[in-house]
Amino acid sequence: MGKQMTEMLKGTLEGIVLAILSMRPAYGYEITAWLREQGFSDIAEGTIYALLVRVEQKRLVDVRKVPSEKGPPRKVYSLNKQGQEYLEEFWRTWSFLTERLEQLHEGGK
Amino acid sequence: MGKQMTEMLKGTLEGIVLAILSMRPAYGYEITAWLREQGFSDIAEGTIYALLVRVEQKRLVDVRKVPSEKGPPRKVYSLNKQGQEYLEEFWRTWSFLTERLEQLHEGGK
DNA sequence: CTCAGGTATTCGGTGTTGCTAGGTACCAGT
DNA sequence: ACTGGTACCTAGCAACACCGAATACCTGAG
Lengths: 109, 109
What we know:
Two copies of one chain form a homodimer.
Chain A: H1 3-9, H2 12-23, E1 26-27, H3 28-37, H4 45-57, E2 61-66, E3 74-79, H5 81-107
Chain A binds a DNA duplex through residues 3, 6-7, 9-11, 13-14, 27-30, 42-47, 49-51, 53-54, 68-75.
């Protein structure tokens, strides 16, 4: 999708994944597939797994192993209390950014 | 403002600066000051200068030295044709992201 | 039975980016 | 002479997304 997207995803991808997990528990492969459907066509598989490891280490999610019928066991992640707070903080930061950018976008016409 | 902002600025800060330059030519010190006024309280000075060097090397801006009454000469940057196209591409990428995130934000309530 | 192919996770190395923490230089007022 | 505001630059660091490859499990085609 272009280099701009790659850089823009830094910081927001984490929020996106946490937002997904806030709706329902999910595992890496599933999240990757969903993101691709949503148009994030070039999100690398490895990226999501690495991100999930990070949020786990930050204690923002709980994990449980669930056997799969079609492959190795899934690692199903769910957002915990701390993760919810972190996600709310993410939305605040995001809102701040969008407000400034919207102003700039309007002003630039 | 927090670590989330730092990561989120990666990729967007460049667009922000280019958007500013699309309205009027400006120099580094001025841009830094303006950003701080807008609430980007902890944007480091060095960050902006490094960013300006990068966009100059990418040929997105034109530069001219202008003597200052109060210090060393200013390097005034202005967006050129290529920079405008790049900025439009930035807005397209940004719009894509905001749409997805807005959906997620709504869905998460 | 073997082998391709979908499912599912992991890992090492790379490039880009913003931050830290300085430094240089010019000038005005005390 | 010295402080402080203006204005720019740099080297080293940490975080993050990407790339490419490897591993592991299972099913169905040949």
